[in-house]
Amino acid sequence: MTLPRHEEHTSRPLRATASNSRTGAADPTTPERGAATSALTRDRVTLSLYASLGILGYLLTGMGAILIPLQEQLHVERAAVAFYPTTFAASLLVVGLAGERLTARWGHQLVLRTAVLSMAGGAGLLTTSSWPLTLTGALLLGAGGALTVQIVPAGLHVHHGKRAPAALAEASALSSFASLLAPLAVATAIATGVGWQAGYLVVLPLALLLIGVAKVPWKPSSAPSSPPDEHPPLPAAGSLLQRCIDVLLAIGIEFCLMLWSADAFTQWHHVSAAQAPALAALFVLGMAITRAAATPLTARCSPRAVMLGACATASLGFLLFWAAPALVLSAVGLFLAGLGVALLYPLALARVVQASPEAPDHAAARAALASGLAIGLAPLTLAVIGDQIGQRVGYLLVPALLAALALRTARDSAQHHVQDSAR
């Protein structure tokens, strides 16, 4: 099949393209101008954005795999290295507040290259034998990852228009598969005697290559603001705040299951320390499979329908994971939950950018802020409840978040149908 020709955007500002003739909002039922309406183009711009998110997925998941050997190398307490993952959430919060200004000042291509350089440098420092240097590395990795989280959705939205949800799902799929490879690479490096550092840093050549060839040629929007007597365009998918709440719920669900499922297997089924992370990887595997198949799925069904179906699948999988007395059934449930959870974040993120079509950088920065809040609060809340009452009770936070997201999506869908009927 021949892919449609896609114009280069070397001289276009980063802005929205299509608007509804009545409201000024992007029409959710018609293609945007300049967007590919049939097949998804995977050109140099798209691959640059995909690769940056894949590098982030590898290094972030790999950081969890190296904490124990890093602790032994530094001769410190577990609390000293357990602090590193929290810096990622803190960096997301900072970028959510300041990242938009960076892209406005530097442009998207320079920010993306800076983000990848920061991640690569941070990963290198994490493998040193100095605690201050490793802490600096964790901060740099978090900062670079946070910038990547902002640049990728905004860039894919501008470059692909109505196909952006499918592109985001593909990018997330690549990141999920990279996340699966990280602990395997670290384990293989340790087993073969070359050292865990080699397994963690194996992705650095790709990062260095991306710094040189990354192509994200858009510049900050210079479009004039609306005249004082005109109303600003209405958002396409509800208010930006409402869509950011959806991102917060989706990220909260994903990270609760990703961070605490290994501990759940240990407590509920008494598996070994080696078996627990392997079983927990079934969740990431399920997400990777669904995201890899997301392009035809999002092309045939409306985003709201896919979101509701994903919530239902995740809820069924969680119920099996949480309630099954047998280890095998519980593991199957976690895998099924991963299949459902996979599309929650890409769809929610795409709608955040669509909610502010004239300022995708602003929308992506606010999504990064919501992500940081979710990563910092949801897993911690589950852990606190688990310590006080019990792990099974704490895990009930997950279906509560799923129910909230499903109800919000159903309500939004009903409002959308009412608006369509009134036109």
TrEMBL record:
Q: How does it sit in the membrane?
A: Multi-pass membrane protein
Q: What is its main location?
A: membrane
Q: Is Glycoprotein there in the keyword field?
A: no
Region annotation Disordered: residue ranges?
1-38
| Compositional bias of kind Basic and acidic residues | 1-11
Annotated Major facilitator superfamily (MFS) profile domain residues: 240-423
- Keywords on record: Membrane, Transmembrane, Transmembrane helix, Transport
In the record, what terms sit under GO molecular function? transmembrane transporter activity
Record-level GO cellular component terms: plasma membrane
Q: Which top-level group of life is the source organism from?
A: Bacteria
One Pfam family of this protein, by short name? MFS_1
Gene3D superfamilies in alphabetical order: MFS general substrate transporter like domains (1.20.1250.20)
Transmembrane stretches in the record are 47-68, 80-98, 110-131, 137-156, 168-192, 198-218, 274-293, 305-324, 330-353, 365-386, 392-410
Where does this one sit in the cell?
Answer: Cell membrane
Q: Which family does it belong to?
A: Belongs to the major facilitator superfamily.
This chain's protein is named Cyanate permease
Its source organism is Kineococcus xinjiangensis
